[in-house]
């Protein structure tokens, strides 16, 4: 494995820049210590540095609306399945418009597909494998099987490491609000400092705000410097929502949000 | 006053059904436990899940959320939206190990004065059995200590 | 700084006997921000209210908490008192220490403490209240009435006679609706057309009424007082200004065998046609799906013969946009169609007809000039079986309700038949006779006792044709289920009255609710029977549920009274409890991100998009915008909004947060 470059990706990227189809390529490049890092390329020569391999799991969609990036012009984005779902969900929530970005869809091998329209991306996703990562599924199952006291202990122990750095928020393509609820101080919904209570409330709020929207990329958990599996919280809700209402997110620009809709006969057993 | 544990319970209710239902409990002079205090909302749809957390973080041992029965919402569908919100919220809390038995959801109409008393009394009894919410109190107290330390 | 006044009411003994009001007032006085606190026997009395008013002046109060009964009882009283003393009424809140405290708890320390907790909670809320102004919206004093049956006609005339403009929209080429198809009406047996047609003419001639026939509602937006309605005027293919209604085109039209809708298929019409001789307007339309020219490109006979050159083959549908302050829905009902009754042989046997077809047979202007002749061979039937509840009250068929009008019109049919065919025998199979109404029971008794209608209580189990007779088999449940067999010449089904096929889509266009049968839903089954849940839209007639003529007319006049009441104001005043999108300084303008999810959640379609543009007119941001005229203040969007960009006046995040933090505080 290692840093296998794919000629195809670099060629397409170079071509796009040369034709001025886009002014920026958002992709992956070689980082330090054998890791990959996001790479932003705006000249043809630098496209050589773009790479894609099994290490490139990061969801890059969150860069699409960051001001520092949008000011660089129209982008093409190297897109794995997670990134593509992020793009579609952002479009569904009217955060980006059709034909304003080009996705260079990469999965395995040298097969890079240039997708210019959301419709093409939807088509691509319709054939993709949207399963959860095996280790995530395993941890989910393990937690679900625990007693409530054990789950409390598990999360309390994990969240004791949370430093409220909000890297999870930064990494999430769907945390695009210019003003997050944690930044509101009138009223102060969540204590500012990192504390057991505040950490827990922050993660409850974040997960609830992702309910019906989360594309299950797990980026929040990957971004966590304390390695807390916080991505399992919104993913747990996404699983539940899929089971209850049958909806999958990040696959259609016309999709809604299960939290902003209802059925008069929604089932529950807890309301007396 | 006895030393028996008296739970603190906050009720989040909608104006049109449950608030009116609780008024009827009063008009009918049906007695219930004074542990519950009502906060009035226009609709269950208005009840932000964060407010429930705030009640617990402020020392509540239990919470009641109540509004119009399905199809009876004064605003036609606020309670339907609320219901989905609670379905999801409970799943999350449970997954995090928070005791969802401490949050009681009910539909109480403007005509159900007796039911309101019953909901309150059964909730009070239930929370008395569960005892003070020690887990939560523990993490709340941590904040207080820290704040003292900062000063 | 907040300067709050707290007023604790004893409500005589009601609160005072259980709660120590004096100590609650004393404790409240110590709360931060409270500058005045007092208890009094009856706060709602004149001297009680004066105490509040005086304190507002004397202590320069910025907020008032009246701790007394339920705000559902006296909030308006105390808010008015505050307003009279110059304090914005929305700075006054009530703590409910009677219904929620003294009446439901025993006298004691815990109860007094709870009363104080409630006072403290509301004090914290009111510190976060601010002044609000009632919302005023202008009223456009034009009403749109949808449906030109008897209900629509009545509503239109009542509103127009009240001095307001009315736009009456009718889908068919003529107004008149079902009533124009009826022969005589129960319980008086007066001629339906004789009483209706003068009203139809009045519509056409009324200076306040604009009539759009052959037109349908395309779409609607806006809100009470300010609806924008688009109406599709289907191409009639004639120039109405030139057409004199001479009818020559209709007599010359070569396509003559189209089953007439008005005659319920018992007679034919031409492709260019006027539905019936008394139609209003009495001008033809071309039915394009049956017109030879529109189907084959050749014919134009009508154009050739038209003396005024009024035929317009090239005419297209036209969409007109009108503004209105109120809408009356009067789209009526339909009778259940043929395929629904295979067991009664409808559609299979020519002489099994519906009640509405019988009306046409009995009508002097009908296909038989009022003689009762059966459709198959024109023979005068000697025995007629009337089957009530054909479809109605039949949960297995999906219609659990009673169609209400059938018992009466079946009795009428039996009578009319007997009056016209003296030697004939009418049989009526029925489940129950429901004849509640003025002179209704007398009427059905007359059918049985004077006109000799033979009523058989039971259902028909089998119906088949044999030797040009219809054999009707059933059981008489009043005779212990004794089998009955009648050799009838004709069978009339009292088919269920159902909602119009497109009522669901119309309801959705207008955002009014409908029941499981797709009848439009009233706002309250008893106290708001002509209102819908959408303010400014009213119901008249059988679009709400099956209704007979007097009920339809009464509902129509009721709806008209509501419209006229609404139009008696130049402006509407609404409680300012509405949601608002926040505003922040440029370049952010609002923390709303324009995800548009709140637009789906709003039960009132009150949330729209707003484009924020720079000086060059370029769109820099799209955010949500809440229409205060439509918003009803439920706050569902507020709780849903992730960025907390929406807040609800009167129940703001700050207010409720303060309450939650104060309610438990030891």
At a glance:
The complex is a heterotrimer of chains A (272), B (151) and C (666). Chain B is an alpha/beta fold and 151 residues long. Chain B has five helices and four strands, in the order βαβαβαβαα.
What does this structure look like?
- The complex is a heterotrimer of chains A (272), B (151) and C (666).
- Chain A has helices at 7-18, 67-70, 81-92, 118-126, 134-145, 148-159, 167-171, 196-210, 219-223, 232-245, and strands at 24-30, 36-41, 75-79, 102-106, 112-115.
- Chain A has 272 residues and is an alpha/beta fold.
- Chain A folds into 2 domains: 7-126, no CATH class; 134-245, no CATH class.
- Chain B is globular.
- Chain C has a 5-stranded parallel sheet. Chain C has a 5-stranded parallel sheet with strand order 20-27-21-22-23.
- The mean pLDDT of chain C is 94.
- Chains B and C meet through helix 1, strand 2, helix 2 and helix 3 of B and helix 4, helix 5, helix 6, helix 18 and helix 19 of C.
SSE layout:
The complex is a heterotrimer of chains A (272), B (151) and C (666).
Chain A: H1 7-18, E1 24-30, E2 36-41, H2 67-70, E3 75-79, H3 81-92, E4 102-106, E5 112-115, H4 118-126, H5 134-145, H6 148-159, H7 167-171, H8 196-210, H9 219-223, H10 232-245
Parallel strand pairs in A: 1-3, 3-4
Antiparallel strand pairs in A: 1-2, 4-5
Helix pairs in contact in A: 3-4, 8-10
Chain B: E1 9-14, H1 18-27, E2 36-41, H2 49-57, E3 62-67, H3 78-95, E4 103-107, H4 113-130, H5 134-150
Parallel strand pairs in B: 1-2, 1-3, 3-4
Chain C: E1 4-9, H1 13-16, H2 21-29, E2 34-40, H3 46-58, E3 63-68, H4 71-84, E4 92-96, H5 98-102, H6 109-127, E5 135-138, E6 142-146, H7 150-161, E7 165-169, E8 184-185, E9 190-191, H8 192-205, E10 209-212, E11 215-223, E12 226-233, H9 248-252, E13 258-259, E14 268-269, E15 272-273, E16 285-286, H10 292-296, H11 301-305, E17 318-324, E18 326-329, E19 333-335, E20 352-354, H12 355-362, E21 383-390, H13 406-420, E22 425-430, H14 440-449, E23 454-457, E24 460-466, E25 469-476, E26 482-488, E27 490-495, E28 497-499, H15 503-510, E29 537-539, H16 549-567, E30 571-574, E31 579-581, H17 597-601, E32 607-613, E33 619-626, H18 636-640, E34 646-648, H19 653-663
Parallel strand pairs in C: 1-2, 1-3, 3-4, 6-7, 6-18, 7-10, 18-29, 20-27, 21-22, 21-27, 22-23
Antiparallel strand pairs in C: 5-30, 8-9, 11-12, 12-17, 13-14, 15-16, 19-28, 24-25, 25-26, 31-34, 32-33
